[in-house]
Amino acid sequence: MQHCSFLADITYGDTLPVITPILVNEFTKEIRIVFREGQSMKAHKTSFPITVMIIRGEIDFGVGDERIIFGSGDVIALEPNVLHDLNALKDSVVRLSLHKSDSVARVSGVLKL
User: What is the pLDDT of residues 12-24, one digit of tens each?
Assistant: First the structure.
C-alpha cells in the first residue's frame, strides 16, 4: 500500500510551475503540478492518454482552439496526441495522471518549451 497527499508540503515556484511525482507504481504515475496565478504550461501533447484534475484553484485549459475554465474538483481526460495548454487564473494544485509508459521527465520538459 502507498499513501500520499496532493495538498501536503506544497511548494510554489517563483517563475515556473512546480512538478512533483506524488505516487508512482507499476500501474500509474500521479503527478502534482503547482501553479502560481499567471503561471502556465505552453501548448503540448503526449503519445499517451492523460487525466487532469484541478484539486484546488482555477485553470484556463486550452484544448485545440477551445478554452475551458476548470475549477476545484473538475477533471478532464484526453486521448493521445491532443494539443493542450494550461494557464493558472488563481494559485492552483493540479493532479496529472499519466499512463505507466509515459514519463515525468516528459512533463518537466514541457516547462522548457
Answer: 999 999 999 999 9
